[in-house]
Amino acid sequence: xxxxxxxxxxxxxxxxxxxxxxxxxxxxxxxxxxxxxxxxxxxxxxxxxxxxxxxxxxxxxxxxxxxxxxxxxxxxxxxxxxxxxxxxxxxxxxxxxxxxxxxxxxxxxxxxxxxxxxxxxxxx
Amino acid sequence: xxxxxxxxxxxxxxxxxxxxxxxxxxxxxxxxxxxxxxxxxxxxxxxxxxxxxxxxxxxxxxxxxxxxxxxxxxxxxxxxxxxxxxxxxxxxxxxxxxxxxxxxxxxxxxxxxxxxxxxxxxxxxxxxxxxxxxxxxxxxxxxxxxxxxxxxxxxxxxxxxxxxxxxxxxxxxxxxxx
Lengths: 124, 178
Prior knowledge:
With 124 residues, chain A is an all-alpha fold.
């Protein structure tokens, strides 16, 4: 099969993941977009491994390592997501603006970020 | 589609195209579904088809690891997160921000750029899968534990660090004490 078939599939999958990361508001759904992008990269590695006939199987090994890194990333990210949910009551990434640039007058509101529950969070 | 000259490779390409269509369609549903649980379940379909693509590309062990880790563990973790954050299981109309159009424009640009690049760069290169060495558990294990031992060990330390970090994060108290 032509090499560009899996590469094109990987490009499209990556673009779909980019769309998901950009458009979703829920942090868990953003993470799903990241997973799609990581899988697209893995398809590239495996395709080039098959095309180059790598005797060391560098592409497949790298794909395995990326799967492990993705597992570590999803574990840490979900811990962060659960912490955000406990402190804010929601995981809408658009409303998490504690680290945004803001006026000096608003800085005193940041002393107790755990108490900032005045967001219109949807706890249902 | 160019007819293959190798013996009996026509069905390989057909299977690959089918798996690609399933993967791309379900990936689109992952990012557009208005029901969060449905999005997670469509992710299972996408990751499973990607595992099938690995199988077609002679990466057998990677495919089974994909099924075990991604379909088995990662999706379960995502579903756990959805449950623990009390995500509504019904339909929601506000899952997407009001920037769907620019996001879609960026995604189309990314797809056009990457796709045009790979097609222009590799349009005359073919993968010969007829007598490819299948990346079975034995082959992959031999290469990992002979050539790639150091990255493997570094990766295991990274995994340990991520595990400790996740435990520390989930033990944080919001009232100041740790």
